[in-house]
Amino acid sequence: MTSSDQHHDRRWLILAILGIAQLMVVLDATIVNIALPSAQKDLGFGDGDRQWIVTAYALAFGSLLLLGGRIGDLFGRKWVFIAGLIGFAVASAIGGAAQSFGMLVTARAAQGVFGALLAPAALSLLATTFTDPSERNKAFGVFGAIAGSGAAVGMLLGGVLTETLDWRWCLYVNLVFAVVAAVGAFLYMVNQTHPDKAKLDIPGTLTASAGLFALVYGFSHAEQSSWGDATTLGFLIGGVVLLTGFIAIQQRVKHPLLPLRVVLDRDRGGAYLAMGLSAIAMFGVFLFLTFYLQQTLGFTPIQTGLAFLPMSFVIMVSATLAQTQLLPRFGARPLLGIGLTLGAVGMVFLTGIGVDSSYWTHVLPGLLIMGIGLGNVFAPAISSATLGVDANDAGVASATVNVMQQVGGSIGTALLSTLAASATTSAITDAGPRATAEVVAQAAVHGYTTAFYWSAAIFAVAAVICTALIRPGVHEPSTVGEPVLAH
């Protein structure tokens, strides 16, 4: 059997392996959040320390993604993918067994390091495995559906594991995903190294990693303090300066970490922007709607996870339909425009919630609209972000998708949290010293709806910008290199 025949026979197995790995990474973003209250009680750390369980992962993951993507390009994506899986599993096991706050934070940071190797390797393997346009659309439809719905599934799984077993299983469960995916990758993929033996861009790596670290930390710090805080401003300004220096370096070095041709293409640039702005806006759903369901409507963690499942189902269906049926006919431009607009509409619908609202009439319709919108954003955007990229750049192009999601999520968390907290405080202040429990509850809901309005505005702006930026029509991929073959 020829290598081409082996690839033909096993490429769908490779998709399943990559899907498992992607699901693990996406799940981890929300499953740990559900476990946080139980972990805090068990390990005895304070409310001020709680953010570091999330921030440690975000800092390591966000700052090292470009490096992780380029390492895969240079040294071969199979082994980088497997190393990321094994490292992520070991870090998860250490985190699950943590006996102290420091041990848990260290494990979460290690998860971020190995996630930065794993995530871009998975997407670049997908891009180089599926080069036939029709099969590529199907594969990216599945991958986009996982990317869009995994966070909600993580909330349900986290609730089930925390309530029925222990918070530690929210970390231990990663071992199942990682081991299965690593064994599959070892059996069915072969390694491909960079044919030109290019060297790693050390100055670019240092400035990009430091700049992304500063940005993510700055936004995380803003959530806990204020936008005017000296530390917040220092890190945000430092991040901008470092990333500006990174761009200057990329224009001059022989082997850039991120070749600017990757991001300056109109379609890819529009896709990256769509992913980043969507990440900022959609945190209004998962963050504040979770608070609303549990603290206002009295949902349990499992009930909260179940409440998001309809949106996950709709995302999976709409993402697959958009990628396999609509994208080949209409191109990415109208899909992203419609998807982002539906995101805005869904958010506006959610602004109608109140203290005594019903999930079925005031929450579910908005989630379903959001699901249709996000399905039309994620799959086409992820596909367009790697379309036509040279095989040698597939890893760093894939890493840029993850950078936009990670930095966007950090911005969204900090920005929307600040806006919601300000609106809540203002409402309580207006009520005066005699504010009752009902007034406080109404003020909290006012904060959530304020965040939803801002999220709607971000979605709307994204729809306008991305539609203007992306070229109309259907664009076929150019050859992106040899496929990732099976043994």
Give descriptors for this structure:
disordered N terminus, 487 residues, 0% strand, Growth Hormone, Chain: A, mainly alpha, 82% helix, disordered C terminus, 15 helices
Under the CATH scheme, the architecture of the largest domain is Up-down Bundle
What is the helix content?
A: over 70%
Structural class: mainly alpha
User: What is the radius of gyration?
Assistant: 22 Å
CATH class of the largest domain: Mainly Alpha
Shape: globular
Number of strands: 0
Q: Which fold name corresponds to the CATH topology of the largest domain?
A: Growth Hormone, Chain: A
Main sheet summary: none
| Uncertain spans | 1-7, 478-487
Q: How do the SSEs run, as a string of H and E? A: HHHHHHHHHHHHHHH
Spatial gap, N to C terminus: 10 Å
Q: Can you tell me the CATH superfamily of the largest domain?
A: MFS general substrate transporter like domains
The number of distinct structural domains comes to: 2
- What's the tally of helices? 15
Output mean pLDDT: 83
Strand content: under 5%
